[in-house]
Protein 1
Amino acid sequence: MPKLTIDNLEVTVPEGTNVLEAACALDIAIPHFCYHEALGAVGSCRLCAMMFTDGPVKGLQMACMVKAQDGMVVSSTHPDAMELREHVIEWAMTNHPHDCPVCDEGGECQLQEMTVAGGHSKRRFRGKKATFTNQDLGPFIQQEMNRCITCYRCVRTYRDYCGGTDYGVLGSRNRIFYGRFQEGKLESPFSGNIIDACPTGVLTSKPFRFKTRLWDLQEAPSICPHCSLGCAIVPGGRYREVQRVRAGINRETNGFFICDRGRFGYDHVNHPERPRQPRIGGQPVALETALDAVRDRIAVLVEAHGPNSIAFLGSSRASLEANALLRDWASAYGSEQLAYEAHQGRDYAARTLAARVGGHACSLGDLRQSDLIILFGADPLAEGPMLAVAIRQAVRGGAKVVTIDPRPVELPCTTLHIPLPASRLPELLAALGSGDLSAFDAQERATFAPLLDQIKAARRPAMVGGADLLGGQGIAALCSAAADLSTASRAVGVMALLGGPNSYGGALLAGDGPGFDTLLDAIQERTVRALVCLESDPFCEALDPARAQAALGHLELLVCIDSTPSLAAQRADIFLPSRANAEMSGSYINNEGRLQEFLPVIDPGLPIKVTGAGDHPPREFFQTTPGSAPAADWWLLAKLLERATILAELRKTMAKYDERFSMLSFLAAGTTGLRLPVKVALPPVADRGLPHADGSDNQTLLATTGPLGSHWLAHLSAPLAATEPQPYVCLHPDFAAALGLASGDRARLTTRFGHCHVEVRLSAQMVSGLVLAPQLWDTALEGLAPGSLHDCRLEKEARA
Amino acid sequence: MTELLPQEQIDSFKARAAAIAHPHELIVDLLRAIQAHYGWVPDDGVLLTAATLGVLPIEVEEVATFYDKIFRRTVGRRVIHVCDSICCWSIGAEMILAHLQQSLGIGLGETTADGAFTLLPTCCLGACGDAPAMMIGLTTHGRLTPEKIDETLQRERAAIAAEVAK
């Protein structure tokens, strides 16, 4: 631990820290561009110069390039250092246009800050500035190359850190240009990070352009609702709409970056069809009337048919507080009909994980340090994109990655892919755990035996599973294998990709309660007569949507609390509008058991762009904001339960009665969150397994989550919806050849949901003999619950 | 001259790329081969290089646009690189450049109407001892004077005429 003196202040820092980081630890602000905690130091911007006056290093040095050593005496305010910085920033500014008043970066321009901090104020360069022709980089990124100061941060972020392959640095000297070989959309699913990385207005958000000056934007720390990883985000809102999202910093989860689904998926909050009014039988009513109606009608049913005639369905996108209140509500009636995820495979996977993972749980931060990562039925780009970036960092540190999956699994790094049918994944996990591979044939043994050796030799191995393909049984096998392969000196880490941002929270609350399919049976048999849906849509999210829709038709009462125009919201007898997570406080538990808080950015209301229809909003005066009826999900439930509608009170009560939530009161937004104590929950009920094909038709279809189009909230976001694919299927080339299909062919896909036209894609990475199709909302493929198998027929169509 | 590079050369580069650990090393060689054969490197030349060596198109483009001796636009039959670096500048490079521009009737970065010459500035030809210097094709011409330039241009014009006649 070297101890050094910077600006007459002593500081002791860990071995390997550079002097710039040591100065930052002392809150000494040194201008810098190229140094970034995630990207490292490269010493190219020459801005962090400091004078080393005594000790092992002497003279004017770039602080980021010097490792802190004992006895160093450093000055950040030495006249030579100040003068150098002034010249360097003047130099960086020679070609920079003076368009600050109209620049999209205005308000958060680091270049402006560094220029002021560097002491440069007067332009001396009289020559012509370099100018460029911008490229169209697609719907997300706006390029304005004239503002570029060639700091290289975008390329280091896009290519080095996130693994993009279509963006680079062209030219030399003052002709340097950052862009693509040819114009077009940036292909990386992490492209938006270059918006955050760019210190000035070269790369800005296209959907956010011309919406708000940044000092007018309201921001608050939040948690991304688009997958189970719980990445830190900072949404920004104004004019009663969420207008953008930038990455938050959480070194235990996402680090400094987020995926494009998280960044451009905010627009569900502003969806034009979002239901904002409480309704009874489709007619708008006052909130109190709707709340009374819920209480009264449920009371009547309980009176007539007993408490178990009421079923409750929470969700993985509702806050932990609301889900907990839902449980309290069910137990207040004495109902045992409570489930937390309509997709039973995901539900059991989450519950099994929460019960079994124990001390093996590993965070994205842990994964970045792994030396061996094996993915079993997990497709990070679809099910948790930032996991792919974390895996890439492990690979950059020397890790090996193996993916075992029936699907092709693309990752932004070198991997070994082993195709294996989903049904055999638990079998493989059990075999790896016991070390007995005799159930596999000789060829498979030759593949898996070295894997076993690799796991045993690895120092920080991690195993990753996907809820969609593994289900409860698979996750149980994953946890067992990890336990079996752990030794006294090192544990095997476990991470599972779950259904939603709060799947883990729902799993803790569900315990050994019934799965949603059991509830559906009860609805079918009319023992359950009313269903309360908390931000869930059983019509679409159930493993078998057709069966769910048939059963749900028998309900006497459907109550729905939601912030989206879901089918359940449309069909509800009583509907209560809730807030999106950017509009409320609450907490989620991510897929590793990390409890994290989010804060409201804006209050709900019809966006000004709607009320004003592009012009000044109407000059009318009301006591309330139009469209402001949505309330926080926990607020609505507290009302229904006639409890105090104060979040701190609700949390205190939760912490008091459930020790697993004892940390809720210590929660703070914008921090790393709190890892739940390792506590074994009740074992979940036996997994019923995923619906399987009955072999009556020609081919078997495996439904899966796609990178885009399969996620309900993201699908409701206009910037993302524009990039969603048309229906497609993916086949192994051999299988496609047997069916007479080639890449790019149009085909007719027949399932029990009907016919559909699809494009044929080929991948040699997948299991042969299988038709792979993504669930795509608002297409003929929307009924394909990820992880389910279906009989199908695929026929070639003549090209149009 | 429609093909970018003869197939046997492409195959040879493929074989060499497969035999080495870093095929990126061959980007410059392959680009120069295309340029020697085709005259310059069009977008398809970048894509051909990427496909032949198994590297990304953007990686090829980064190299192609970095070097001023790789031409990503059409050029004349002879490219004149005039040094504008410190040694040449201190001994009259500006005068040399002015004379070249005047006798060719073009500015920097331009090509004569007959497609014979393209004039480009370059930073240091490594001929500081013979400053002021320029390079035509792969031949360096040092200790330039207006007379020497006129003589050289005349010789090149004659050579071009002979090429065209063929």
Protein 2
Amino acid sequence: MVSIVKKSKYKDVDISLTYTSDPAPHHPPHHDLGHEDITTMADEQEIMSDIKKIPSFFFPPKMVIKFKDEEININEKFHAIKTFEGNYFTHYLPYRFFESPWDLSQAIVDSLIVEDEIRQIKIKEGESIE
Amino acid sequence: MSNIERQEIRSLQPGQKTTLFRAINQLKQNGIYEKFVNWHGIAMMTKAGTELFGSIRNLAHYSPVFLPWHREYLIRFENALREIDTSISLPYWDWTIDAEFQDPPTSIIWTEDFLGGRNPTQNGLVTDGPFKNWKFSLNIPGNPREAYLRRDFDNAIQLPFRRDVELVIKNNLLEYDKPPWDGNQDYNSFRISLERPIHNPVHNWVGGTMEEAYSPGDPVFFLHHCNIDRIWANWQRKHNYLDRYPANDKIRDRRGRIIPFTNRNHKMFPWNDINDNTHKRVQQVLDFTQYYEYREYYVP
């Protein structure tokens, strides 16, 4: 297995992308919905064995950011994937399509910064919010 | 035929608006509104079908069920409001009107009398209007958290113009949907032509809460989707396509497997209890006229 790590900084947040030749899943499988049509375990195993045959460029790199001393795996926490069309997509920002993993990572950082600033404002205001 | 008539929010009488906003706040206070937000979040975060990678299809978006799912969602929301006051019908926000404005954020929609605006000194928090200072507990898988109602009004994004909407409605060559039944960029079906280039930018233009998986946390979500549903209803009426949805079990993934919660004979997630008659199958929401009508359409 070969890995290439690329690092960058955006708004003082460290972003690292790890490209690997190992097409291991970075996205959690769907939840058990208890429906008759839902994939069986055997199906899942078959698919996973197929996936191992797919070239690694099909998968997004592992995207990790260090935000407020916390290491966040974007692929797992924000359900990030590479689409069939080659865009990058996260179910967390589901109405946008990103051209690169950097763009996606930066959008997540922007969102986390805003959420954190709002939290600080609210703490300062003594949680006057309803 | 139903006696519910949906109209543009700007045409509501002041008393109707007050009743609507009061009812929405009542749903928020008794926890029902949050249930709607989390229904959307969980459907958005759950992949539909067996394609673990590459496909962005989930149980409510980037799939043929996008329009029926949101139609049922709005019917449920409208019913919840009508349990509080039977005079309420869900209004729509016709953003093609705002698209013509030089500065859409100055629209009356975003004033205190309508949906409130954004507070630029507080990162876009909504601190005025009927939904000011709203806060949510979100039950998003892997990311449970609290969030505040927030908007961005991203002027780098263009709201869809009326001509864009009319083109999609008038195109009688469009099928409802086509394989691979997902979010592909070939705009060769009605659903994808409506979902990505028309529906998505409105979410991103409003931004903030509307841009994320729990977008119904902003009440404008329901008004926006009511307009999306109006466009579908217009296309259905214009071409007499009330029943034009792929046949039973026709919607399958690239491996030929039936995609769950999506086919016309399926119940939709999370309203999929086989023993509950209030949980509808896709085919039960195709004819909207049994639930409501719209006062005006884009194309006669």
